[in-house]
Design brief:
The complex is a heterodimer of chains A (441) and B (269). Chain A has 441 residues and is α/β, with parallel strands linked by helices. Chain A has helices spanning 123-132, 145-149, 173-180, 182-196, 210-219, 240-248, 268-280, 309-315, 372-376, 383-391, 395-400, 411-415, 422-439, and strands at 24-26, 32-36, 46-47, 54-55, 60-63, 72-73, 78-88, 92-101, 159-164, 200-206, 226-231, 263-267, 286-293, 299-304, 323-328, 335-336, 350-355. With 269 residues, chain B is of the alpha+beta class. The longest helix of chain B is centred in the first third of the chain and has 28 residues, at 2-29. Classes of the chains: A alpha/beta (441), B alpha+beta (269). The structure holds iron/sulfur cluster (4 copies).
């Protein structure tokens, strides 16, 4: 079989063996959840409930504000204790709804009903349902899905790609979903294909998931609009632009969106969520998250949005050794946390724990111009050049070296023999470029 | 041997002479008339090229002010003195401007608002801020890596013993470069006659603030009651001095003393 891939990239230790054999497990309800009002790219949702209100599972808590934003629903039944600041895993201090969980009556909001004719919905109706259900890209980017599904005027989609690459080390949530619930995901895929009006669908899985590949090869045997393609195991194979290049040999233009090359990429979890809203009416209130690394039991858990990491770790038997670092997402692109008193949100694909011994602290040396970072950069950038410009505050130079194209995959930092803080510096540069643009200079 | 030296010297000399003549003719012929006032103004400007006026450097400002693009008092570091000189050169009446200086809206030193995590990244405030707001307990407060120090063209900011930047009121010209450099947005420009300063930017409430900082504003509103009527108002859980508040420092002593967190200060220095 031919393996598809892109130029550049790295192959860090996969570490998937830690959790890939554990089936999805439902974690019992915690006593309290903190549901972030900002779980997506764009503006935070505006609360439509107040302190003391009783809510059900699926009750709307926050309304989307503007075009790029998303609704937020309660993941549990219970009473609202407060709407206040908390430590958000991606945005720092941010507003959230604290709900005391009523474990006895875990019912869905009575307003939630399945539609009668899920198979005869129009694309517009599907997109409307996705919008109301607050579905966002669940691979971690959390871009509101309804915005992606509807191409901007004058543009159209040709291919829909289901992103089952899961190229980040450690993470196995998508892999378990692909193995355990192919029907649910495939129905979701059909809905996406219909909603975005593409002609062909591709299910893309990395070669290190033989079990999933076997199941999907059989599953797609008699489907003429969907095709399975196996990707070479390489990081960042699951990044949108790299995936499109690998499968379609099309390059998304600098600063452009995948729609320019007529491709739509959606994550496995997102497809499952779209299935749930169309066939059951359920808004997005739970997700599969891999809990792995330095924890006693490594699991793939089905979690209610807003469950605190401290509760999750307790359920997994506690830390293994003294915790040194808690990462939301994978170790390459994830976010290190300030505290474990922080809830998971729609984009939390994994919780990776490192203990004190595993946290590496390397001395940062000068660049020796070996060019390794250039070889691995999947965006064909010159990471060392950009980093030096940023260090010396030559922001315009950094911009002209296309710093804004960096996808912050961290491949460059990974290979650098001098342990240069390449991706950190480039990210800083990007932030400075954006700040400058905002000032209008 | 000497002949070769003489020959080459004279060839080079002759070529140089030719070019010199061509250049001087060109300079006369294609001369661009510059306004002599531009040079005069350039002489009185501080020549710090700080960019506070909005022009790309002092020369840009000098040209712009002659063309009427910038006001005579547009050079902020120059203050009243330069404004008057520029107005004189241009023959217009000088407008008065109150000097402004930068003030840090945070008093949370390492001891008062300690780190709750280790930060092991690029040593700049902006970079630390990009990772969930940095490792300091209070995410609104000063990180102390000194991006503002780097940005100041007048050497007016230094990181003090306590790890917070200190602004030298004598040297600070109010150019605002530090204000733009600070990712936390906690440096603000205040007119030098501002009677009351709040050294905190945390918009959260009592319990949350107490948990992260010993000198954070807990939004108790005591100061609002003790200050002259209508001078202070609570906005976003922080007291804010209203624009038309009286400027006499003495009127605010009681408010400052009443603050349980001791985060109010009299005067900008
Ligand atoms: S420069 Fe950006 S895109 Fe290129 S390897 Fe580094 S992090 Fe990845
Ligand atoms: S990998 Fe590191 S040492 Fe090599 S060129 Fe890039 S920055 Fe320099
Ligand atoms: S005031 Fe702002 S820029 Fe200056 S040290 Fe503090 S956080 Fe950094
Ligand atoms: S609470 Fe206020 S004074 Fe304390 S660190 Fe935060 S901003 Fe600074």
């Amino acid at each position: 079989m031919k393996w598809f891939t892109f130029p550049g990239g790295i192959h860090p230790p996969e570490k998937k063996e830690l959790s890939e054999k554990s089936s999805i497990e439902i974690m019992p309800l915690p006593d309290q959840v903190i549901i972030p009002l900002h779980q997506h790219m764009g503006a935070p949702a505006k609360p439509v409930v107040k302190k003391g209100d009783l809510v059900k599972r699926g009750t709307l808590l926050g309304e989307a504000q503007g075009f790029i934003s998303s609704n937020v629903h309660s993941s549990v039944a219970g009473k609202i204790k407060d709407i206040t600041y908390f430590d958000h895993s991606k945005f720092g201090r941010s507003m959230g709804v604290i709900v005391d969980v009523d474990k006895e009556n875990d019912d869905w909001d009575p307003q939630i009903k399945p539609v009668e004719n899920p198979d005869s919905l129009t694309p517009e109706q599907i997109i409307e349902m996705v919008k109301n259900a607050g579905i966002v890209g669940m691979g971690g980017a959390t871009f509101p899905t309804q915005v992606k599904l509807a191409p901007p005027p004058g543009k159209h989609y040709e291919y829909f790609i289901l992103n089952g690459a899961e190229c980040e080390p450690f993470l196995t949530a998508d892999q378990r979903l692909l193995i355990e619930q192919p029907e649910r995901i495939f129905k979701g895929c059909q809905l996406i294909l219909k909603a975005c009006k593409a002609q062909k669908g591709i299910v893309a899985i990395e070669s290190n998931k033989p079990e999933a590949i076997k199941i999907w090869t059989k599953f797609l045997e008699n489907q003429n609009n969907f095709q399975l393609k196996v990707l070479k195991t390489k990081y960042p194979q699951g990044a949108e632009k790299q995936l499109i290049y690998a499968l379609l040999n099309r390059e998304v233009p600098s600063g452009g969106l995948p729609v320019e090359v007529h491709a739509l990429v959606q994550n496995v979890g997102t497809a499952a969520a779209i299935h749930d809203v169309v066939y059951h009416g359920y808004p997005l209130v739970e997700r599969i998250t891999t809990v792995t690394g330095a924890v006693k039991q490594r699991k793939n858990l089905k979690l209610r949005i807003g469950t605190l990491v401290s509760d999750i770790i307790k359920y997994c038997g506690g830390y293994l050794g003294e915790p040194g670092k808690i990462i939301f997402g994978g170790p390459m692109m994830g976010d290190s946390q300030r505290t474990d008193y922080t809830p998971i949100s729609k984009g939390t694909s994994g919780i990776v724990v490192q203990n004190k011994q595993q946290v590496s602290r390397k001395q940062h040396l000068n660049c020796i111009r070996c060019g390794k970072c250039v070889t691995v950069c999947p965006m064909n950038l010159l990471p060392f050049e950009i980093a030096i410009r940023v260090e010396n505050d030559y922001i315009d130079h950094a911009q002209s070296l296309n710093a804004m194209d960096c996808i912050e995959c961290g491949s460059c930092s990974y290979v650098c023999p001098s342990n240069r803080e390449l991706v950190q510096l480039i990210r800083l540069g990007k932030n400075k470029i954006t700040a400058k643009r905002k000032r209008g200079a | 041997m000497p002949l070769e030296i003489i020959l080459s010297t004279s060839v080079v000399g002759a070529v140089g002479l030719c070019f010199g003549i061509i250049l001087s003719i060109a300079a006369k012929k294609f001369k661009v008339e510059t306004d002599p006032r531009v040079d005069k103004i350039l002489e009185v400007l501080p020549n710090a090229n700080c960019g506070a006026c909005g022009a790309p450097g002092c020369e840009g400002f000098a040209k712009g002010v002659v063309e009427g693009k910038y006001p005579c008092h547009g050079c902020i570091p120059g203050g009243q003195d330069v404004a008057e000189k520029v107005s004189k050169i241009l023959g217009v009446k000088a407008e008065t401007s109150v000097k402004q200086i930068a003030v840090l809206m945070c008093g949370g030193t390492r001891q008062l608002s300690p780190d709750i995590a280790d930060y092991d990244g690029v040593n700049t405030c902006r970079s630390a801020h990009l990772i969930l707001g940095g490792s300091k307990a209070c995410v609104y407060g000063c990180i102390g890596f000194g991006d503002c120090v780097e940005a100041c063209p007048f050497d007016a900011i230094h990181i003090g013993k306590q790890g917070l930047p200190q602004i030298d009121g004598q040297k600070c010209t109010g150019c605002g470069n530090c204000v733009q450099a600070c990712p936390k947005n906690i440096l603000k420009l205040y007119p030098v006659d501002t009677p009351l300063i709040l050294a905190c930017s945390n918009p959260e409430k009592l319990k949350e603030v107490k948990a992260v900082c010993k000198v954070g504003c807990i939004a108790c509103s005591l100061c609002v009651k003790k200050a002259p009527p209508q001078a202070l108002k609570m906005e976003n859980n922080l007291p804010r001095l209203q624009p038309d508040a009286p400027k006499d420092i003495k009127l605010y002593e009681e408010a400052v003393n009443s603050c349980p967190s001791k985060c109010l200060k009299l005067g900008v220095d």
